[in-house]
Amino acid sequence: MKTQILVSIKTLIFLTSPILFNAYAYGQDLAQAVIKKREMVVTANPLATAAGERVLRQGGTAADAMIAAQTVLSLVEPQASGIGGGAFVVYYDARSGKTITVDAREKAPSAATQDRFQDLSFFQAWQSGLSVGVPGVPRMMEFMHKKYGRLPMRRLFRPAVKLAENGYPLTQRTSDQVARLLSFNPSCEERLFLRDENAFEYFANPDCSAKPAGTVVTNPAYADTLKQLQRYGSYAFYNGPIAADIVAAVQGDPSIPGDMTEQDLANYDVVVRRPVCSTYRGRKVCGMGPPSSGGLAVGQILGILENFDFADKDPLDVDVVHLFTQAGRLAFADRNRYVGDPDFVTVPSAGMLNKEYLSSRAALIGENDMGTAEAGVPPGIFDTFAPDMSTIESGTSHVSIIDRYGNALSMTTTVEASLGNGVMVRGFMLNNQLTDFSFAATDAEGLPVANRVEGDKRPRSSMSPTIIYDKRGRVEFLTGSPGGSRIIGYTAQSIVNLIDFELDPQETINVPHYMNRNGRTDIEQPITGITWDYDAQSLADELKLRGHSDPNLPLDERSVGIISQTSGLSIIQVAKRKRPRHFFDFYWRPKKVLIGGADKRRDGTVGGR
Length: 609
Hints:
The protein is an alpha+beta fold. It has a domain at 2-269 and 394-415 and 428-461 and 573-608.
């Protein structure tokens, strides 16, 4: 009887939810948010989510669960992230009440010079030893474990080691990515993509076709690498045989050799940086600062939009889409000019988020598309640089975790492009993160680019791990996404959906995307059963009437794009329970609950209890 009463109450609340009404208003039976009471983990892969959930159930912290999830992602989602790549972490420590950000971005070798990619196409640079940055993930995992972990490292590595030794099924996404890369080759014998024999044998068949989804593969080399890290810590990665093998692969790349040395690896360390925080509609929004442009660009978009009222608007209202895309233009204009590695350039972070400055930027927005926006002049001290319009980034994943102790972690992790630079060493993929640098060191007038290549420098990123705090300073939302430079738009839109439209995390994810990176306005082609259904062409036509196909723009920017936008949002909301009013509200006793959403555009799942 109690169970029946409980189900009836839940059903009544579910059916009267305004969030549910929004979903059905768009004619969709879509994924629904997951509710847990104590702890939650959201990742882009069910095996990684299961690994993180297992650690949380064993009493592990958010940092512990992240390590378990990351080591599994490195195995089962190698096209997106791994121990051969880098990451940014935003972490809230419940004990101290402080938020820190951890910069585990890859670094250029000390020998790198600003003409590194001169006269090379992106493909040539990507598939070469020149593109590999010194990885940051192993050092980051060790740092987070020492400072915030509770469980022994061997327990955190166990899920990945078992999967690597016993086998796991390739996902459809991995298989599709491999097939796409192989299709770029002129022939099976003349391979630039998957030119490395280890990677080729692991992902492809002898006839140069990709191994199909569901193929069970083992990776004993990766299991052994994790065992070395488990026994000797990150020292085993940055020194000794593993480091020597990384350097040999980089310097011996069959396409174009790189210049990384064992000393570059031994010298690597993560950097703890102050978070970049702004406010939006009374909330505090904290993200990753430079060398990521994510925290600043997301903060600018929100700060500009705060000057407009979305009351009585819909997430897909043409007014909302127009304002969001214009805010994106302005934010990307500043991002492209000012952001680089803060150890090399002076970035006006505070000025870029100054409320008066953002209000003046918002005043530039009119009824029609403004066309290509120029960078503003934010208050504060900064270096004079030429803009860098680079936007090619893709191989990324995101993890959001809240543990039973109240700690919160938002991490975006990457190998840059799909399968990194295509070379596998000891069971993991090397990154191609250095192609995030500007290929041009200066503009036509000789003005330097902030994001130009320099030795020991970290390239600019768009990764935007974010934690949002309520008006009393308590963690309210975690969000972030993969998606290259589109990460900024995905993350900012998720915050608008959560706060302005009061959608739950899953409904927030289900809303079709739209953005402008100071070029063409793009809206998402709806995906049946995954996103809200809507008339994309009608919205595109309305935007064109507002000048979003301005004939004064370059030819490739004249139309509104209706395209796929494969985000991988992982969102957690900490929601308060209302005070019990009836005896059967015993079942709703917890003061707060965790509400999670995972992006079905990828393989996202929510776990916890």
